[in-house]
Amino acid sequence: MLLSKFYFMLPENLVHAKIPRANHNSKLTLIVAPAGFGKSTLAMQIISEQPQRAAWLSLDEHDNDLSLFVSYVINALQQVNASIGQDALNALQSDDVPMPETLATLLTNSMVALRKKIMLVLDDYHLIHNADVLSFMERTITYATPNLNVVITSRHDPQMPARWRANGWIHDIRADDLRFSPQMASTYLNTHLNLNLAASEIDTLMQRTEGWISGLHLAGLALRSTTDRSGFVAQFGGSQRFVIDYLMEEVLQQQSDDLQDFMRQTAILARMNADLCAAVVNQNDCAQLLEHLYTQNLFLVSLGDGWFRYHHLFADVLVLSLSAEEKATLHHRAGNWFQDVGLLEEAVTHYLAANDVIAAVNCVADFALPAIGQGDHLRLKHLLSLLPTTSQALHPALQVAQSWFYAHAHQLDAAHAALDQITTQDEVVQAWMETIHALIAHSRGNMDAILPHIATARQHAQPPDLIGLYDWLSGVALWEQGQSLQAIDHVHAALRNPSVYNDPFGYSGINFFLSDYLNQMGRRQEALAICERLMADLVDADDNLMAHAAPMVGQAGILYYEADNLETAAYLLKTNIHLSEPMKLTQGLVLGRLYLALIDYARDHKEDAYRTLHDARHIATRTGSSPFTLAVDAVENGLYLRDGNVERVTNWLTQLPLTHPRLPFIVHLTAVRGWVYTEDARALSAIEILETKARQAGRERHLISLLILKALHYDHYTQHEDPLETLREAVKLAAMGDYSRAFLDEPPRLLALLTQVRDAAPTFVDKLLPNEAKPIDIAQSMVDPLTERELDVIKLAALGYSNREIAAKLFVAVSTVKTHIKHAFSKLDANGSRTRAIAHARQLGLLHDI
Question: What phi, psi does 120 have (nearest 5°)?
């Protein structure tokens, strides 16, 4: 259905008067005039010089939905350039539709590097009244670079900021500009329609129509069929509505009865092709009839690819001649056809026009559960919005869909209430209900309830779209229960399921869980490999990371931080924040700042560290995410400990909700660290409880930190066991995964102890101990050093420039840039990964000056 809404249109053989040219500041060409003044025709003429660089979107009342409108605009633009707006389209697939300004930013950012101008035509913009859609277009035009010019046709002035006119951004074209001159009317009526009217007759028609194009067009069609042209011209006149009604009658009377019936019956269609018409009117010659109407200029407009529509005013008049019963029958036939070919939005619209709510509900219900399972949430939300608000109770699948959306919006009570209203015993519906109950339990931190719900769901049914969810939720529950290996197996199974694999956001999100789990098990290198593989895959045509890669980029930054590669970690964490910002992804925005604060502190930029933590807390608080707020508090109090601000940490410990159902491990760890540093008697018992859990669950990363704190505790209390054996175990575990920061983020006295356990992992310990910084010999670090141009390309890539932007800056072709990048990737052992290449270049000191 999307492709039919935007298309390239060639201008008709109808030439407007010379329109004043826009100035060089113009961003928007605004064509405003009443119906029938040729607004669309003029827009077609404007784009006719370069139709291959123009995108056309015809609007209707159904486009007053932000998600659909944005997707239509982007898909139209992508027919001109496939790289435009992909991040915005991806953002629309998230559970919460982003704000209009976010979508506008994503769209305009994707067009920065375009070298050729693109024109976007929005036809019939007066039909748009949704505030979010209007805001999106306002922001898009405001942010647009000179590469994008927007043409809007409308029957009335859209609401635009006053400063746009003051800045010269708007090129106005009004009704007076569109009126035909006598010379143009003569050319059209006598040359185009071959009427051979006298100059006086043309003057009369001009006076009566006041240059109104459709009036002249309709008059011309009627004149072709009348024998008394002079009499017709003399009597011609009246209001536009009277003229239209009169001429419609005159034109229709000249057609055969069969053709009149065809036009009346198909007038209920907003768009039509031969197959649809055949289903509606029950006849087989529809292709020939449509071709006849089109070639005879009988108010039929071509939409391309065999689709047509009537002139709106003409269709309105035709429909008036239908009885209510006839209209209902025709709409129902149209609904059946659209449902059969999968164009559900139009099917629902026609069913509702036929007053058949049950058919509309069943149409959406058949789609609902597969849509949820396959991640087609945007389309399902829109279809639900078309139905009457009370109709969702008419089908259990719609009630399931509503509860699903409530659960993902964290409206857990509403989700539970929606499930309670479902009374069907259908096994598939019951399976979905149990799965949503498991999601609710996960959101509430009631991990013990997840597996029983999933087990019950499996007993009811195992539709393909649910298997991936079964496995993922089971993996989450098993992980929380300490069954790490079983959890990993379930997550792997979820990732192999097509319903997950084909959903970019779901696939990236579950891979984040997998990478995080592996890291907690001490398998940092394996976790990093997953991140780098996805970062190499989740890129657009210009090799720029897409928005849904944000979780993996942030996770990679954390993993590099663990190995004390602060330069690479900072680069990745900042990239993660940049990718997370447009969609307001709380995880990326908060975790990215937490680790950037730790990096600032490690570099002795303490004020920057606390400032960054303040920003992270503001984001976590704003979104109401209690676990993230607790994590920010834990990191901040960890820094207070290192600064010696014991009193503040003590106050925090007294207020800490240790029984919170989803308390992050960093909170537990900081609490134990606080008790160790303040010589609290609770330290050892808390360590031993957490240590037992970590050993049982195989969480070696947790175990490393706990063993370090245990060794510090033993070192202070000499009556306890020798701290060195405990520390030696921590060193051996950390060396395997290169967890350097586990030691470097503790007090200096730990380093003194490390010298006594060097034998456990000499190379690893030597890296941790203070030594003189050695300059990097770049020539010796690379077998095949980068050329000067390859280094220029890598530096610009590190600054965030796309391939097209790099090409523009270096005055070379994009293909040349790609060649340089390919060679640089090979020399930097990056395996085709842009992010890894930049990371390795930073490690080698090649990017120290940027």
Answer: -115, 120
Give the ranges where 550-657 is alpha helix by DSSP (H).
Answer: 550-562, 566-580, 586-602, 606-622, 626-643, 646-655
d(CA 662, CA 685): 21
Packing angle of the helix pair 586-602, 626-643 (nearest 10 deg): 0
> CA-CA distances (angstroms) from residue 749 to 322, 709, 764?
91, 12, 18
CA proximity to 229, closest of 258, 287, 260, 189? 189
pLDDT tens profile 615-642:
999 998 887 767 889 999 999 999 999 9
Helix 834-843 to helix 814-827 angle, to the nearest 10 degrees? 60
Q: What separation, in Å, do the N-terminal and C-terminal C-alpha atoms of the chain show?
A: 47
User: CA 664, CA 782: separation in Å to the nearest integer?
Assistant: 41
Write the CB contacts of 563 (distance below 8 Å, at least 6 apart in sequence).
524, 738, 739, 740, 741
Question: For residue 286, which of 362, 358, 337 has the smallest C-alpha distance?
Answer: 337
Buried b (16+ CB within 10 A) or exposed e, 31-43: bbbeebbbbbbbb
| Residue 805 parent element (H or E) | helix 803-810
Q: What is the mean pLDDT of residues 170-192?
A: 87
Which has more confidence, 127 or 801?
Answer: 127
Q: Return the beta strands (E) in 265-324 as ranges.
A: 300-304, 307-310
Number of Cβ atoms within 10 Å of the Cβ of 660? 13
Structure tokens at 721: 């066991």
One-character DSSP codes across 727-741: HHHHHHHHHHHT--H
Does an H or E element contain 150, and which? strand 148-154
User: Which tokens sit at 435?
Assistant: 């799965």
Q: At what angle are helices 412-420 and 396-408 packed, to 10 degrees?
A: 170
Confidence of residue 604 (pLDDT cuts 50, 70, 90): very high
3 state SS of 122: strand
* Residue 300 · residue 290 · CB < 8 Å: yes
3-state secondary structure (DSSP) of residue 301:
strand
Task: Give the whole-angstrom CA distance, residue 513 versus residue 515.
Answer: 6
Closest by CA to 609, choosing from 643, 656, 575, is: 643
The residue with greater pLDDT, 778 or 36, is 36
> Phi, psi at residue 226, to the nearest 5°?
-95, 150
Amino acid identity of residue 91, one-letter, is A
Q: Residue 210 CB: number of other CB atoms within 10 A?
A: 12
pTM of the full predicted structure? 0.71
**Per-residue exposure over 267-297, b if at least 16 CB sit within 10 Å of its own CB, e if not:** bbbbbbbbebbbbbbeeeebeebbeebeeee
What is residue 543's DSSP assignment?
S
Beta-carbon contacts of residue 485 (< 8 Å; ≥ 6 apart): 698
The total of other beta-carbon atoms located within 10 Å of residue 738's CB is 17
pLDDT digits (tens, 9 = 90+) for 307-355: 998 877 678 778 888 999 999 999 999 999 999 999 999 999 999 999 9
- ∠768-773-776 over CA atoms, to 5°? 110
The dihedral through the CA atoms of 425, 431, 432, 433 has a sign that is positive
* Strand spans (E) along 750-836: none
Dist. CA 389–CA 221, nearest whole Å: 46
